[in-house]
Write a structure and sequence with these properties.
heterodimer; A: 109 residues; mainly beta; 6-stranded mixed sheet; 3-stranded antiparallel sheet; B: 122 residues
Chain lengths: 109, 122
């Protein structure tokens, strides 16, 4: 199972919105309602920001939203803030009852 | 608070075995599925295996199927990963991770440990 494809980096100015893509296939994102997104600062454990394609865990800002279309998922961060500068990666359940992660995207504010 | 502490890593020769442990606290271990993840040097995160809250259902990555076994002991609040026939490509830091939702596996994790390092070399 190959890793899901994400852009290496995305940048934006404070207050703007950015969108990070996560591209898979009909065997993973295209076949799954279990897509998740994580935020990770250097040297720290990842933090879950989205699960089940578009649901936010308790305590996660509503500036984070996500969706899925076909074999691709996306994470949007609105009202970009300095604290949003981190690495973001996606994850998806696959038809083979496995989990595959994305390559990761560095967000620069 | 939620804590997960892995142990059992080390340096082993190809073909040998290791058993990793993950002791958890701060949540109801009996109610959550658990995952093992790994990260090789300079590589991305790779999922290894998952076990359901009751231990009845287990799934594995193709790269470890038939060689690794995930298990859990609720009486000890401990998750295990038995790794047999180790290969050089199994090298990396191994993390245990807790499912976000109770009972149902939704393939999203909200806590993980600091990891234990495994190196396979002759």
């Amino acid at each position: 199972q190959s890793a899901l494809t994400q852009p290496a980096s995305v940048s934006g100015s404070p207050g703007q919105s950015i969108t990070i893509s996560c591209t898979g296939s009909s065997r993973d994102i295209g076949a799954s309602n279990y897509v998740s997104w994580y935020q990770q600062y250097p040297g720290e454990a990842p933090k879950l920001v989205i699960y089940d394609v578009n649901r936010r865990p308790s305590g996660i800002s509503n500036r984070f939203s996500a969706s899925k279309s076909g074999s691709a998922a996306s994470l949007t961060i609105s009202g970009l803030q300095a604290e949003d500068e981190a690495n973001y990666f996606c994850g998806s359940y696959t038809r083979g009852d496995t989990l595959v992660f994305g390559t990761g995207t560095m967000v620069t504010v | 608070q939620v804590q997960l502490v892995e142990s059992g890593g080390g340096v082993v020769q190809p073909g040998r075995s290791l058993r990793l442990s993950c002791v958890v606290s701060g949540f109801s271990f009996n109610s959550y599925g658990m995952h093992w993840l790994r990260q090789a040097p300079g590589k991305g995160l790779e999922w290894v295996a998952v076990i359901s809250y009751d231990g009845r259902v287990k799934y594995y990555a193709d790269s470890v199927k038939g060689r690794f076994t995930i298990s859990r002991d609720s009486s000890k609040n401990t998750l295990y990963l038995q790794m047999n026939s180790l290969r050089p490509e199994d090298k990396g830091v191994y993390y245990c991770a807790k499912e976000y939702t109770q009972i149902v596996v939704t393939w999203a994790t909200d806590h993980r440990g600091h990891g234990t390092e495994v190196s396979v070399s002759s």
